[in-house]
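Researcher: Here's my situation. A collaborator sent me these components and asked whether they could plausibly form a single complex. I don't have experimental data yet, so a predicted model of the whole assembly would be a useful starting point for our discussion.
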Amino acid sequence: MTMSTEAAISITALRKSFGATTALDGLDLQVAAGEVHGFLGPNGSGKTTTIRVLLGLLLPDGGEVRMLGGDPWRDAVALHRRLTYVPGDVTPWPGITGGEVIDLLARLRGGLNRRRRDELLEQFDLDPRKKTRTYSKGNRQKVALIAALASDAELLLLDEPTAGLDPLMESVFQRCVLQVKRQGRTVLLSSHILAEVEALCDRVSIIRLGRTVESGTLAELRHLTRTSIAVETAEPPHGIDALPGVYDLVVEDHHARFDVDTAQLDAVVRRLAPLGVRSMTSTPPTLEELFLRHYGDRQAAGPTVTS
Amino acid sequence: MTGTLPLLRFLLRRERIALPWWLLGATLLVLVQSGQSQSLYGSPEALAKLRQTIGGNTAAIAMNGPTRLLDSIGGEVVFEVFAFVAVVVALMNMFLVGRHTRADEESGRGELIRSARVGRHAPLAAALALAGLADLTVGVLVFAVTTGTGLPVAGSALFGAAIAGIGLAFAALTAVAAQVFENTRAAYGVVALVLGAAYVLRAAGDVGDGSLSWASPIGWGQRTFPYVGDRWWPLLLMLGVSVLLGAAAVVLLGGRDFGAGLVRPRPGRAAASTWLRSTCALAWRLQRGALAGWAAGIGLLGVAYGSIGDSIEQYVRDNPQIAEFFPGGAADIVDAYLSLTVGLSALLTAAYGVTSALRVRAEETSGRAEAVLATATSRLTWLAGQLSVALAGSAVALVAFGLGEGLAYGMTVSDAGQVPRLIGVALAYLPAVWSIIAVTVLFLGWVPRAAAALAWAVVAYCTVVALFADSFDLPGWARWASPFAHVPRVPLDDLAVPPLLVIGLSAAALVVAGYAGLRRRDIGP
């Protein structure tokens, strides 16, 4: 793994269990300074537990965790001045207003950019004078988002931050994150919204059952999956089934349909060329397929970390 | 109205835990009072003496009710207990109706229910029917325990009916408030205000010429004069008010949107005020209402106790068997009485301290602690902010008690010096109260999930030791384990500083030990 700057977050072999439940089982995560890192995994895979460890709320059972050059458990207070956090399910104190919550959280962290706060209130269309008990789920989420985005913190830990936001607000959020990225700040974004991940993230890590199963740029991850090929050849397409990395082959006369590991694509094309290709369509894997492959129960693959 | 009946069954199920406790509490109040009054004033002579003592005591009349009730022993029971049972039953009705109308609407549960084959008015009708059933049960239970303890049947029926009628009136009032306000707390606030006003108007009327009592549902109930005059027609007033208010609630509900009220909630601050910049300030902001409520309640209890302090000497002379309840016996009876009441208030204050300290856990399980601890706030700062309210708040509550008791007692004996004296006496219990808070912190640090149960067990234990150590004949070590047993019984005994210091230092050690646990454990549900 090569990294131009020091890693903002570096986790190796992190383990954490609650009683008999193992939440994290040797998790690895590397987030470079200045990147937006997507953190993906099915519900209950350990994303929130990881973020709570990074916040110094949970004491790890084992493994190495470094964040912004410090130890999240020991140096919690010092590190928290440099980061900001949006929880996935926000339940602010019901008796005080959204504006008060935003200001209070910012003051507790060490100040906020007032002009930025007011811009964000306008962009997210939030009435700060309402008591938080009267907010809808989306509006409660906005309170936490504005409190985080109005800060100048160098690291943003976002745990499914857009749950409950409408598409318009989702695009406001994406604009804000891109702006944060341009400023060279680091974002760890846990999310289920694939369009959001595709639009924002430089690299992603996919975790499952408390372990990292995939990590890399989106292009690299695509490379790990299969491409669907449909081909018509002059000669009957024999011998394809003997090639490595070919699956679900169906041959009818001069037609063949099959999936191929993207890494083996070149070898397959070389084998087809002498047969006289009349037509060929190739469908690259969608992000959904990529994620479903890791989220689903069928393929419990071991860790295949690349980059 | 479609769906009212299934909803009512559902509400009965939701209330199966809480409602029986309310009913039990109200019934026990009457049962205990009926037994006690009949054993103390069963004879006509004893009752006549009581009439003489109480008849001249304005404070006792203001607390309880009109003196005409003292004409019979059944009336005496009503005099002692009616206003309190009425308040309990009114509150029960307020929560029953509020919880299943506006609170459900606020939480979104009501939406789920209304999306089913359920009419617009069904939730309100079911809530009122539930309250009606509860009131009917209270009435029957009051009738049962009063006739069961040997009081006349007609008076007992009237007593039960009057209590049920007051309950119904407050259920209907809550139904209206739930239509007017968008948030449940505001509705509760208004109903509680009306209840407080009902009590005060009744007190003023009973002390004066009685006309103000007619402005209060509690006054109507007492003026049925059960066991004395057996006057039934004031029940019609309660019934009429209930029907009118119920109809008003139905009309208001018909004209409003789901989730909306008639009064828009006042917008709050757009930005936090400058002082809201620490977890300590936040804790005070969040808990100031609760503290004000507890301090006011404990202070009023002080007024109630203080107001009969002067009569206590006369009272004990009339009823020598009561002297057994006091630590010093018949000698120094007033000081013994004051010492006993301050001790009770200290137990109540400890209960307040535990509720406040347990907010630490509530913040944690709700995820709000996470939001705060993700900022540059250390666990120590966070804990200290929360605890500052419990520690200082319990001092405030004790001062409120001393102030209330000192004012009321000082006025009856014309001695302003009683105010500082009794405040000082109450504060002697501060280290013991703090030690209970400190034990709670220890639990929060090391066994957070069990903290609430354990802390309340400690409070219950101290209460049992304080009230029943003699009657249960508890061994010495069992008493020794309660910090309250080590507080000098001021003003009966002299104030000794060393035990207070020891209690205070143990409390400090417990807090430190609790923090040590909190420091190294996971934060979260």
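Model: Some features of this prediction you could bring to your collaborator: Chain B touches chain A at residues 106, 182-183, 265, 267-272, 276-279, 282, 285-286, 289, 366-368, 370-378, 520-524 (CB under 8 Å). The longest helix of chain B spans residues 379-413.
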